[in-house]
């Protein structure tokens, strides 16, 4: 059994733990910015394939305590790096530091790099290559006070890169974050689901993948663990084969995505085609005020502009007011949600929130605002 750590957007730690718990034997443990768990090689493969909200799945190599940079060099040097890095593979180092002892993260990364390179050169007589952008092996260094943990990344590209995007929309939502928002809504995967401002379709597509049990990593052809010495090709292919057998398109689920820009809808449909969901999501070009909501129950999620990249706060105030009007007048009986970074704009919705979820969208502090719409109880 090895120890692993799966990183995720801040605020989605509990969602991530619940999501992966169904795929591993032992119970995961919550941490800031991720979830730790013990598991087998099969567990590692399954988490990489199935995790909807994880970003990287890291395998812990070792940990130690140190009080100065020279001590870190010595401890790093002691590890047998030649068993995972050779002169044919490239590597990079990512450092996350929260420590008064090691405030210079750049110098810390340099000392770790020197220790790894020196040890490999001594072991095999050749120097390994470093590639900061597209490295074969990524080493993660996590420092908290004087506690140092060393991990190797098993994912390669971050897991939000599902492979279904035909083009990156300039304001598109991270797939892991989109899936996390849907899971936070507690949508039952049976009732109606709407995204009335779907942009390039990330939220409806992630909803479809959840509803029909499509593994998030099913389109990916490459993971970092496939370059490891202990890679078990047969085991991995069996995990993938089993996941495909669990996809179920027999469920009668209605998912809707609409946007007022036709190019966005065309992009959404192309992306849905890549993941075989184009026949299971109803995409349409509509202005927000023209949207029609079936008289029933379900979930409505919108991710309007924040005023950071698209538009300005002044001309977005009317948009947020319009969202509130649509919720009040057309969404009775629905659980409605707004995901936004701008707390001031959210005031123009004109509805009382039942709950607020604090989430990180990159470097932005955001809120998922929950408005259960009951007739006559808007204020």
Structure description:
With 379 residues, the protein is of the alpha/beta class. It has two domains: 152 residues, VC0802-like, CATH 3.30.2130.30; 164 residues, Rossmann fold (3-Layer(aba) Sandwich), CATH 3.40.50. 31% of the residues lie in helices and 24% in strands. It has an eight-stranded mixed beta sheet with strand order 2-3-1-4-8-7-5-6. Helix 2 crosses helix 7, helix 3 packs parallel to helix 4 and helix 5 packs across helix 6. It is globular and about 70 Å long.
Question: What's the alpha carbon Rg, rounded to whole Å?
Answer: 23 Å
Helical content band: 25-40%
SSE order, one letter for each helix or strand: EHEEHEHEHEEEHEHHEHEEHEHEE
Order the strands across the largest sheet as they lie in space: 2-3-1-4-8-7-5-6
The tally of helices reads 10
CATH class of the largest domain: Alpha Beta
Key traits:
Rossmann fold; VC0802-like; alpha/beta; 379 residues; 8-stranded mixed β-sheet; 15 strands; 7-stranded mixed β-sheet
Describe what is shown at a glance:
By secondary structure, this protein is an alpha/beta fold. It has helices at 13-21, 41-50, 69-78, 105-124, 175-184, 202-211, 233-245, 262-274, 313-330, 343-346, and strands at residues 2-7, 29-31, 34-39, 57-65, 90-98, 129-130, 137-144, 147-153, 192-195, 255-259, 281-285, 298-302, 334-340, 355-361, 364-372.
What is the strand and helix layout of this fold?
Blueprint: E1 2-7, H1 13-21, E2 29-31, E3 34-39, H2 41-50, E4 57-65, H3 69-78, E5 90-98, H4 105-124, E6 129-130, E7 137-144, E8 147-153, H5 175-184, E9 192-195, H6 202-211, H7 233-245, E10 255-259, H8 262-274, E11 281-285, E12 298-302, H9 313-330, E13 334-340, H10 343-346, E14 355-361, E15 364-372
Helix pairs in contact: 2-7, 3-4, 5-6
